[in-house]
Write a structure and sequence with these properties.
By secondary structure, this protein is mostly beta strands. The protein is built from one helix and 31 strands. The N terminus is likely disordered.
C-alpha cells in the first residue's frame, strides 16, 4: 500500500509508479463483539465453529464458505477505533520508524539523508531503500558498516521471503518526471556480490512484482501509457525473459507463483479484478467490488481494497478467499495506507484517521477480525517493508 501525501502522490503519478493500495495487518486472537462489531483485544485462539461469510464476487466455480484451515468467527465486517485498540507486539517483518529500519534480518539500520523514503526491504544485513530524488527516485543500498551504493531511477524493490535475494527495477525518466522508453531489471543475493542485469530497451513502465520459485517476475508494456501490460519471468543470469501469456495486466502474484491477480477495465472509470491460475490461465473468480493487490504466504487469502480509489486513501481493507473470492473479513473505520502480510493469519496495516493525523501500524487477525496496535499512533514516519 502506498503512503498518502500530496507531494508523494504527485510524484508517483509523474513517474507512473504503481503502488499497492491496501492497509496493514495485526495479530489478534479474539474476534470482535457481535453486538458492537468493533475490534476487540486478542486472546487465545477461538475453538472451531461453523464459518459465516458472504459472497461479494462472481466465482467461476462453486464457492465454499471459507478456505480450509482456521475457523472464522464473528461478523465479517469490523469497524475499528484506532485509539481504543490494545497494545500488541511489534511487527515481525521489517518496519521503519523515522529513518531507522528495524526487524527482519540483521541489526537496526538508519537510512542516511533527508530524502523521503518511498519503500524499503532487507537483503540479509543490507537495507534497500527507494527514496525520492528530484523528479525521480533512486535505490540506496546501505551496508552493515554504513556504506551506501546508489542506483538511479529505481522505483520498486522485492525480496524473497527469507530476505536472501532481491530484485528491483529502474525506469528512466525525463527531467520533468515523465517516463522514457526502456528499463532495467536487477537481481542479487546477500551472499553473492554479483548483480545480474536484464536490459529492456523497448519496454515501458517496468515494475518487479515478486522474486519467487527462483525467478524474478515483472510486468512491462510495449507501448507508452498502455491500457494493459504483460507478465514476464526472468532467471537471473539469462539474457532474455519469458512472457507468461496466460496472465495479462497482473497486479499481484502468490508467493509460490501459482496464482495471479489481474486488473480488468470495466466501463469508463471502473475496474474489476480476476484471479487466475498462472499455469493454465483458468479464471478462478472475478470481482468488481474489490481490487486484489496481494496474497498470504500460503496463497489461501487475497488482500483486497476498493476497486476504485479517489482522495486521501482507502477507507477499508479486506481479506478474500483466494480460491472463491468470498469475503472473509472487512475492516473499516480508519484510513488504510499500506497493507502487508505478516503471516498466513495476520495483516499488518499502516493506518491513520485522515490527513495530518497521527499514524501507526495495527495487526489484524483474519480468522477473528480482532486488531491491536503493533506500533502506536505517532507523528513520526512509520512504514512497513516489502
Amino acid at each position: 500500500m502506498r503512503p498518502k501525501n500530496a507531494r508523494l502522490v504527485a510524484l508517483v503519478a509523474a513517474v507512473a509508479v504503481a503502488a499497492v493500495v491496501i492497509g496493514g495487518v495485526v495479530a489478534y486472537r479474539q474476534g470482535p463483539r457481535d453486538e458492537q462489531a468493533t475490534a476487540a483485544p486478542l486472546t487465545a485462539r477461538p475453538t472451531p465453529t461453523p464459518a459465516v461469510s458472504k459472497t461479494t464476487s462472481t466465482p467461476v466455480s462453486t464457492p465454499t464458505a471459507t478456505p480450509s484451515g482456521p475457523a472464522y468467527t464473528g461478523r465479517a465486517e469490523v469497524t475499528l477505533k484506532l485509539s481504543k485498540l490494545p497494545k500488541g507486539r511489534v511487527p515481525q517483518i521489517p518496519y521503519l520508524v523515522g529513518r531507522e529500519v528495524r526487524g527482519g534480518a540483521g541489526t537496526d539500520v538508519t537510512i542516511p539523508g533527508t530524502q523521503q523514503v518511498f519503500e524499503f526491504a532487507r537483503l540479509g544485513e543490507q537495507v534497500l531503500a527507494v527514496v525520492i530524488k528530484g523528479n525521480s527516485t533512486e535505490l540506496m543500498k546501505i551496508g552493515i558498516t554504513g556504506e551506501v551504493e546508489r542506483v538511479p531511477d529505481v522505483a520498486t524493490v522485492v525480496t524473497t521471503e527469507d530476505e536472501t535475494a532481491a530484485a528491483y527495477s529502474a525506469q528512466p525518466r525525463r527531467s520533468d518526471g515523465a517516463n522514457l522508453r526502456g528499463g532495467t531489471v536487477y537481481a542479487e543475493t546477500g551472499a553473492d556480490a554479483q548483480v545480474h542485469k536484464l536490459e529492456l530497451p523497448k519496454a515501458w513502465e517496468v515494475q518487479v512484482l515478486a522474486y519467487a520459485a527462483g525467478k524474478v517476475w515483472f510486468r512491462a508494456s510495449d507501448k507508452q501509457d498502455a491500457a494493459a501490460w504483460s507478465l514476464y519471468t526472468w532467471t537471473p543470469g539469462e539474457a532474455t525473459p519469458t512472457e507468461i501469456k496466460t496472465v495479462t495486466s497482473p497486479t499481484a502474484l502468490s508467493p509460490d507463483a501459482t496464482i495471479a491477480a489481474s486488473r480488468r477495465v470495466s466501463g469508463d472509470y471502473g475496474t474489476c479484478s480476476t484471479v487466475n491460475e498462472v499455469a493454465t490461465g483458468k479464471q478462478l473468480w472475478r470481482t468488481c467490488e474489490y481490487g486484489v493487490v496481494g496474497f498470504t504466504q500460503d496463497g489461501s487469502v487475497a488482500i483486497g481494497g476498493p476497486a476504485y480509489e479517489d482522495g486521501y486513501g482507502p477507507g477499508e481493507t479486506t481479506a478474500l478467499d483466494a480460491k472463491t473470492g468470498n469475503l472473509l473479513r472487512k475492516w473499516n473505520g480508519a484510513t488504510f495506507l499500506w497493507t502487508v502480510v505478516e503471516d498466513d493469519q495476520h495483516f499488518l496495516m499502516v493506518v491513520d484517521d485522515g490527513p495530518e493525523t497521527p499514524r501507526g501500524v495495527i495487526r489484524c487477525t483474519i480468522p477473528t477480525g480482532a486488531c491491536e496496535q503493533a506500533l502506536p499512533l505517532t507523528r513520526t514516519e512509520v512504514m512497513l517493508g516489502k
